């Protein structure tokens, strides 16, 4: 076991850290207040290779490994989880799915633009009645020979209001259950495709989250991803990689809150000394450091499993379950260490606390991760 990052990994981490500090930090509070993330920052992330981190360079990607992806996600998430979730969805759920399961024509038409940040992607699985139960798809795609007719509703869609390309999971043959589900590429502006209002969220407020409506949307047959009936397997495998991204996001949120709390504890004085000298605060910091380090090792293990070509379904679920728990618990502690100032926006920790909660919910709730983990260990 080698726990040291390579020189290349250190350079990638430092580049992401520099971008987060110089480009994302200024204006992050204002973006949260206004629920807006500027297009120019998305373009800059594309220019740095962050939108197609693991995509083969022949399709415009950076050709990096999953460890690099984790490092970039952590650094971005320390500062702005709204930025990192756009990176995560575009990389893990859209680019990965197209590269792993798409046709060469689909890759040339869509992946080459998604990997460079020219296009932004969205992944459309959740529905009003099909969140954790992804097999209960109500959105239908009726086979009409050379095309499909898509009808239904998708909600909680990240990048929903600004994406160019949407991967939509829909039921083609209900009698076949999960084997009757397919994945389709839908372009923005297609007739019958409507984008609902932006959701007013607790956290990651800079990222667009919308409900999408599909009313008799005509989808060419060549826009189906994979073989007929493979959509559910496609979605589940794609989400396994997505969990590494969200685990990395949770890790970054936790690390960012810890760094702010540590700095504040060395500056704030109470009872005649810096509060870091009081055991009550020092022990909080010790717990935060220890559990964040444990989360980091779990996240790195899941990334390494993916890079080695091993099955990472279990390790990614473990990483997401634990890292999201750590993020939620220790952003709360960071607010507590800041006292009254922790409740004020200018100190950043209240935003990190709000951002942390979603990591326990999207791309599979913590309860779903426990189902994945328990089924895996009981099969052994």
Runs with pLDDT <50, length 5+? none
Helix amount: 40-55%
Indicate the mean pLDDT. Answer: 97
Structural class: alpha+beta
How would you sum up the major sheet?
A: 4 strands, mixed
Counting DSSP H or I runs of 4 or more residues, the number of helices is 11
As a whole number of angstroms, the C-alpha radius of gyration is 21 Å
Kindly describe this structure.
It is a single chain. The protein is of the alpha+beta class and 380 residues long. The relative contact order is 0.11. The protein has helices at residues 7-24, 28-34, 39-47, 66-79, 81-101, 104-114, 231-267, 279-307, 313-338, 349-358, 366-379; strands spanning 121-124, 140-143, 147-158, 165-171, 181-187, 193-198, 209-220, 224-225, 269-270, 273-274. A hairpin with a 2-residue loop joins strand 9 and strand 10. It has a four-stranded mixed β-sheet with strand order 1-4-5-8. Strands 2-3-7-6 form a four-stranded antiparallel β-sheet, with helices on one face. It is 52% helix and 15% strand. It has eleven helices and ten strands. Helix 1 runs parallel beside helix 4 and helix 5 (81-101) packs antiparallel against helix 7.
Overview features:
four-stranded mixed β-sheet; 380 residues; four-stranded antiparallel β-sheet; alpha+beta; 11 helices; 10 strands
């Amino acid at each position: 076991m080698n726990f040291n990052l390579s020189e290349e990994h250190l350079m990638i981490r430092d580049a992401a850290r520099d971008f987060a500090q110089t480009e994302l930090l200024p204006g992050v509070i204002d973006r949260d207040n206004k629920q807006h993330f500027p297009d120019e920052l998305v373009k800059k992330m594309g220019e740095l290779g962050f939108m197609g981190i693991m995509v083969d360079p022949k399709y415009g990607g950076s050709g990096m490994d999953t460890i690099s992806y984790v490092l970039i996600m952590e650094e971005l998430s320390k500062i702005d989880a709204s930025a990192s979730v756009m990176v995560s969805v575009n990389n893990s759920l859209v680019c990965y799915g197209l590269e792993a399961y798409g046709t060469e024509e689909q890759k040339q038409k869509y992946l080459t633009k998604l990997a460079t940040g020219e296009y932004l992607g969205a992944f459309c699985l959740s529905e009003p009645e099909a969140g954790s139960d992804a097999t209960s798809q109500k959105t239908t795609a009726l086979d009409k020979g050379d095309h499909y007719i898509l009808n239904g509703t998708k909600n909680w869609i990240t990048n929903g209001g600004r994406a160019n390309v949407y991967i939509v999971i829909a039921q083609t043959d209900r009698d076949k259950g999960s084997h009757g589900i397919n994945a389709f590429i839908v372009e923005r502006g297609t007739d019958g495709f409507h984008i609902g209002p932006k959701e007013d969220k607790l956290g990651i407020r800079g990222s667009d989250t919308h409900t999408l409506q599909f009313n008799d949307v005509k989808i060419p047959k060549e826009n189906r991803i994979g073989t007929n009936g493979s959509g559910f397997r496609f979605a589940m495998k794609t989400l396994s990689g997505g969990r590494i991204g969200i685990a990395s996001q949770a890790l970054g949120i936790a690390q960012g809150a810890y760094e702010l709390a540590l700095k504040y504890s060395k500056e704030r004085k109470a009872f005649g000394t810096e509060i870091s000298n009081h055991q009550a605060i020092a022990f909080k910091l010790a717990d935060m450091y220890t559990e964040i380090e444990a989360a980091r090792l779990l996240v790195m293990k899941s990334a390494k499993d993916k890079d080695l070509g091993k099955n990472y379904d279990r390790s990614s679920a473990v990483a997401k379950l634990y890292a999201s728990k750590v993020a939620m618990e220790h952003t709360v502690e960071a607010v507590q260490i800041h006292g009254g100032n922790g409740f004020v926006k200018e100190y950043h920790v209240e935003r990190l606390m709000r951002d942390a909660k979603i990591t326990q919910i999207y791309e599979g709730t913590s309860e779903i991760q426990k189902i994945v983990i328990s089924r895996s260990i009981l099969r052994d």
